[in-house]
Specification:
By secondary structure, the chain is of the alpha+beta class. It contains five helices and 15 strands. The strands form three sheets. Strands 1-2-3-6-5-4 form a six-stranded antiparallel barrel. Strand 13 and strand 14 form a beta hairpin.
């Protein structure tokens, strides 16, 4: 689908903006900030989720590398939609060995809500942590999905979250219960193994380092 048509489509869809007062009390402060700072990434290849983070007045959009790969390859525009507002993005960095991409806001930065970037210091110690992500699975959201870290693979800088994810959730920022960022949703295990077991609750998450430190190098 043409990116302009896709962008217009989602700008005219009534996505959740402010939280429903009836349910807001059930979210923690960290979850409310995560939901408020998330948005949809619209590309020539479809859509995913991104999150606006800031540190020392520097704002970035964090997502999964595969979400933007089609637009990067075809040199197409990338947009971020949040609360009915759209901002044009530019790629700052794509990590070579990890499904992580960092983008900057070219236009519309003043309209975008961001949260402070606080990274989880040691990803290997995340085993067993209760976590959550805020994103737009199937274009619906933002929603908060909970889970638990089941394992970590240091050679891939990736861990497995026992939870659920769907198309559109890719790129969603994953947090621990204190609101510290652990990574972004990368993929979901959908292969069927003998004897016909579908591992639909295994979500792969690309770990993130101190993104802002990397960008200052």
């Amino acid at each position: 689908m043409n990116i302009k048509i896709l962008l217009a489509l989602f700008l005219n869809v009534s996505l959740a903006g402010d939280l429903n007062p009836a349910t807001e009390a059930s979210f923690t402060k960290q979850e409310r900030r995560a939901l408020a700072s998330s948005g949809m990434i619209i590309t020539s290849g479809g859509f995913g989720t991104g999150t606006c983070f800031e540190k020392k007045d520097k704002k970035i959009i964090l997502t999964a590398k595969h979400v933007i790969s089609d637009s990067v390859e075809n040199k197409r525009q990338i947009y971020f939609i949040q609360n009915g507002e759209d901002a044009e993005l530019k790629v700052l960095k794509q990590y070579e060995k990890s499904d992580v991409a960092v983008l900057e806001i070219l236009k519309g930065e003043e309209k975008i809500d961001c949260s402070n970037f606080v990274p989880f210091v040691s990803i290997p110690k995340a085993f067993g942590e209760n976590v959550f992500y805020a994103g737009f699975p199937n274009g619906v959201g933002p929603v908060r999905i909970t889970g638990e870290v089941a394992n970590y693979f240091p050679e891939l800088d990736m861990y497995v979250m026992q939870s659920f994810a769907w198309p559109g959730a890719s790129g969603s920022a994953v947090y621990d219960r204190k609101g510290r960022g652990l990574g972004v949703v990368s993929a979901v295990q959908v292969d069927t193994f003998n004897p016909g077991i579908l591992l639909e609750n295994m979500v792969y998450v690309a770990g993130i380092v101190d993104i802002f430190y990397d960008l200052e190098k």
